[in-house]
Amino acid sequence: MYRPENPFVLSSGKVSPVYLDGKKTTLGHPRAQFLIGSILFDLIEPLHPDGVGGLTLGADPISVAVSLVSGLHQCPIPSFVVRKEQKDHGTKSPIEGDLPKSGRVVVVEDVVTTGGSGMKAVQACQKGGFEVLKVISLVDREEGGRELFESAGIPFQALFTLRQFIDYDGEVRGR
Questions:
Q1: In the chain, at which residue ranges do the beta strands (DSSP E only) sit?
Q2: CA nearest 116: which of 103, 135, 98, 99?
Q3: Domains of the chain by range and CATH?
Q4: DSSP sequence for 4-31
Q5: Model confidence band, residue 94 (pLDDT cutoffs 50, 70, 90)
Q6: Which one, 41, 93, 101, 137, has the greatest CB density within 10 A?
Q7: Binding residues for 5-phospho-alpha-D-ribose 1-diphosphate
Q8: Known catalysed reaction(s) (predicted)?
Q9: b/e map of 24-37 (b: 16 or more CB within 10 Å)?
Q10: Is the pLDDT of residue 170 over 60?
Q11: What is the enclosing helix (H) or strand (E) of 116?
C-alpha cells in the first residue's frame, strides 16, 4: 500500500509511506502459500535444518508452508513459533514446536526493516540452545536488517527488496 499523505508506522517504529502487508499473501492466497513454501524449502533443505520458524505472527504461515512442502518431498522440516511474550502457564516455553534439543534452525520473516523482530526470534532460539543457520525474509526493506543479522554472524537472504516494488520515479507498483 502507498499512502504518502498518511504514512504507516512500522513495527520498527519507523514511518513510511509504503506498507507491504505480507500476511495478505501468506495467509490469504493458497497458491502463494504453496509457492512460498516451495521456494523457501528449496533454499532451506540443503542446510538440513531441524526446524523452520520465527516470531509470531509474520513467520507463522511461512514456516507452516515450508513444513508442509517439506513433508510432500519426504524431507520433513518441522515448523516452530517464537512467542512475542513468554506465557506464565504450562511449560512457559518461549518457543513452541517439536524441535530436538540443540537443533539447527532457520528463522523466517515476511518483511525485514531494521531486523528487530527477526533478531528477537534469533536470540530466543539461541537462548533455547538452538543453532540459527540463517534468516530468510520474503522482503528486505533495506533499512539495516541485513547488516544487523550479518554483524551477529547470521547469514541473511531476502527473496525481494522494497526497491523491486517501486518504480524508478518513486511510484509504488500494484497500489
A1: 8-9, 15-16, 51-55, 79-82, 95-96, 104-112, 131-140, 156-161
A2: 135
A3: 8-165 (3.40.50.2020)
A4: TTSPEEPTTS-EESB---HHHHHTT-HH
A5: very high
A6: 137
A7: 83-84, 87, 89, 109-117
A8: orotidine 5'-phosphate + diphosphate = orotate + 5-phospho-alpha-D-ribose 1-diphosphate
A9: ebbbeeeebbeebb
A10: no
A11: helix 116-127
Q: Give the residue-averaged pLDDT of 47-55.
A: 98
- φ, ψ at 20 (rounded to 5°): -105, 110
d(CA 123, CA 140): 20
What are the grid coordinates assigned to 44, written together? 532451506
- Separation CA 93–CA 89 (nearest Å): 9
Annotated binding site for orotate: 113, 141
* Closest C-alpha among 76, 146, 81, 80 to residue 116: 146
Helix, coil or strand: residue 130 = coil
